[in-house]
# Entry
Amino acid sequence: MNFFKFELVYQIILIVVLSQDQVVLQSSLIGAMSELGPFRINSDGKTLFMNDYAWSNVANMLFLESPAGLGFSYSNTTSDYDKSGDKNTADDAYIFLVNWLERFPQYKTRDFYITGESYAGLMCHSLHTPSF
# Structure
């Protein structure tokens, strides 16, 4: 999970970006570091520069790696890797978001948007309607 905080309180919108592409196992950090996050990677591959067009200029952004094992995500429970499929992924993401909002209650009253690119876009619908 990566969270980029926007400082102007009156414009804060919490945006959750799910994994970029579950089919080819791309990390959501690809989008964070090359498209819409606050930083871009310089051509030397070692340093960063500010992204003037970052979504984080107008919103708080939470990048969620899902399911466990995708991108930089992991689990301390080996059996979690055996639980695959859209239903389990959406249920896990829902549980994570509920717990995240409990830990950071100042975001509970903010507008909340969920988005995803490629296959992750399909997962957004499942996250809106958890199965439990």
Summary: The mean pLDDT is 74.
